[in-house]
Amino acid sequence: QVQLVESGGGLVQPGGSLVLDCAAPGNILRIDNMGWYRQAPGKQRELVGTITRGANTNYADSVKGRFTISRDNTKNTVYLRMSSLKPEDAAVYYCNADVTTRGSGRSAYWGQGTQVTVSA
User: Fold this and answer.
1) Could you please report the per-residue DSSP string of 13-59?
2) pLDDT tens across the length of the chain (120 residues)
């Protein structure tokens, strides 16, 4: 049983900042790639960015230069630091992790989602 737990969502004004976090508690052997996705009403879930175990990152063009992904492997946690937020950034944000456990092997798991609202 692997659960990713997200927090940090909320309401911000355009131009504001917000930090999301996502943790994988429990008996985790290893986490490889982690990522952030978002889904706005009426739209498909889209990739925001990814981070490898070695902390190499990749971002969607829409957030490049404004969002930063980082991770703490000792805490099995990934962060999404968002700045210069725009109304079009409003969405439910989901984290994803490539997790290896003794009981279940290697699989991708998702967080429960956290709402980010950007409005004046």
Assistant:
1) -TT--EEEEEE--SS-SEEEEEEEEEE-TTS--EEEEEE-TT--EEE
2) 558 999 999 999 999 999 999 999 888 999 999 999 999 999 999 999 999 999 999 999 999 999 999 999 999 999 999 999 999 999 999 999 999 988 889 999 999 999 999 998
